[in-house]
Amino acid sequence: MSEKERIVWECIRTETGPDLRLFRVRFDWVRNPRNAHTVKATVLEAPDWVNVVALTRETKIVVVQQYRFGTRAATTEIPAGIVEVGETSKAAAVRELREETGYGSDEWEYLGYVEPNPAFLDNRCHHWLVRNAEQVSRPEPDAGENLLVGEMGLDELRREIEEGRLRHSLALTALAYVFDLRPLLK
Questions:
Q1: Which of 5, 67, 146, 152 has the maximal Cβ count within 10 Å?
Q2: Shared-domain flag, residues 53 and 38
Q3: Which domain does 13 fall in, by range?
Q4: What is the rounded CA–CA span in Å between residue 113 and residue 174?
Q5: What is the helix (H) or strand (E) element at residue 100, kind and residue range?
Q6: pLDDT per position in the chain (186 positions), as tens?
Q7: Which CATH number do you get for residue 83?
């Protein structure tokens, strides 16, 4: 038996749980290969997400500030959103950048994806880099969004992180694909 075979749990059965709009709940009964113990695992099924690191010609980073219901606080983030059914991650990134900020560009680079929390989420968050982003239209945020759009230099962005205004883990991950954030570690 290979190492991987010894850690992969067998799914015995699956039950559909409630649909919470943003997530669908799934219950998997899985067997531990180490001791045959059965566990009921809760999985949140979610659409994939995108994050956009948009750089202007002046190498400023396009940011949004918005209120987050989960933390009940205003945050600084990068443009981001949900990949709609039938949409590619690039199409979602282009759409979200345009909707949230009014910015656009023809220079896109895929940075890769992360798994937001594979302990209980089944989705991916795709990171995109945009170069030479510029304002091409007015922002058109969704009805449930209220955004302030701005640009920050790298030093200002680092201050936002150091002072705790930019804490969104997925935004930080996307930014780390582009910038060396290590000087921020204390």
A1: 152
A2: no
A3: 3-45
A4: 9
A5: helix 89-101
A6: 677 668 999 999 999 999 998 999 999 999 999 999 999 999 999 999 999 999 999 999 999 999 999 999 999 999 999 999 999 999 999 999 999 999 999 999 999 999 999 999 999 999 999 999 999 999 999 898 999 999 999 999 999 998 989 999 999 999 999 998 766 555
A7: 3.90.79.10
